[in-house]
Amino acid sequence: NAKRQGRNIVRCYDDSMLEVTERRMTLEVELRKALLNKQFILHYQPRINAKTKCIVGAEALLRWEHPTLGSLSPVEFIPVLEEMGLIHEVGAWVMEAACQQLKIWHNCGFSDFVLSVNLSAVQFRDIRLAQEIGDVINRTGITPKYLEFELTETAIMEDVAQTQATLALLKEIGVQLAVDDFGTGYSSLGYLRSFPLDTLKVDRTFVSELPGNSSDRSLTSAIIAMARSLSLHVVAEGIETQEQAEFLLEKQCDEFQGFLYSKPVDSKAFDVLLKSGKSLG
Ligand code: C2E
Ligand code: MG
Ligand code: MG
Ligand code: MG
């Protein structure tokens, strides 16, 4: 038919650009309905003690399950949510759901369990953030020190004066603060030292070629040593092999997270892992 032909002509004109635009439009239309249609869920990936291999906490990771588009990666849809301004609403849902789940695990007797939640740069810039976090903590009745927020280097280095102010408000509430994907952005060590951070997460790009790659060996050793000298708790992301874990343990990394121990799983599967009480090593 005519419509089909017209479309084909445009496709010949610039096939790849049209595909990108179409995909983007589809995502925007579908994302507007996703919260209401309950298509978001949280998955949880264990964080384990590097020595004992016991679960000490988890990172909450957002998943979007669409009936026809399938399961989409947050790497694809989070930037779209940010540009659409929808990240505030979705981020609020993430916090609420994460805190409710944390409360459940604490009530089951896992009283030291720490749950971390990712915040995007756009959420971090929102002046209502601290108030919103305080409200969700009060509503769900969790103890703030068991909730950790992960911020990327880029987010915290964007406007250091605002970062100081916001981090101070968050520390007043009593939550923990982590710098995520460390090493991939640009960080001033001077500022890093002045921020009230608790945890540093070493990006998995530094871990993936350990222990074979000598520059990655030097870099991860230096990052861990630096973090420890700033009294930061160090977590290595993306552990996939025993050799990576052994190297990082020797360098005194505190915690591990990665497919070697578990992929991110839904709350039911995580419950099974947690209640088995077994070490994942
Ligand atoms: P991230 O915060 O650095 O999360 C870690 C990512 O590494 C997750 O990808 C996780 O599945 C993946 N990962 C963990 N272990 C391994 C491993 O051993 N090997 C490999 N190859 N990958 C591993 P995921 O779930 O696709 O999330 C990607 C990014 O999306 C996150 O990176 C985070 O920046 C963002 N994101 C996820 N959930 C949220 C959220 O609720 N809010 C915001 N603002 N961003 C989120
Ligand atoms: Mg993270
Ligand atoms: Mg990360
Ligand atoms: Mg990452």
What sequence of helices (H) and strands (E) makes up the elements? HHEEEHHEHHEHHEHEHHEHEH
Look at the helices and sheets and give the structural class. Answer: alpha/beta
Radius of gyration: 20 Å
Contiguous helical run count: 13
Query: Mean pLDDT, as a whole number?
Result: 94
Ligand inventory reads:
ligand C2E, magnesium ion
Q: Could you give the count of β-strands? A: 9
Tags for this model:
binds magnesium ion; eight-stranded mixed β-barrel; 281 residues; 9 strands; 13 helices; 19% strand; alpha/beta; binds ligand C2E; cyclic-guanylate-specific phosphodiesterase
Description of the structure:
52% of the residues lie in helices and 19% in strands. It has 13 helices and nine strands. It has helices at 2-13, 15-34, 74-84, 87-107, 121-125, 129-140, 153-157, 160-173, 189-194, 204-207, 214-229, 242-250, 267-276; strands at residues 40-49, 55-66, 70-72, 114-118, 147-152, 176-182, 199-202, 233-236, 255-256. The chain has an eight-stranded mixed β-barrel with strand order 1-2-4-5-6-7-8-9, surrounded by four helices. A hairpin with a 5-residue loop joins strand 1 and strand 2 (55-66). The radius of gyration is 20 Å and the shape is globular.
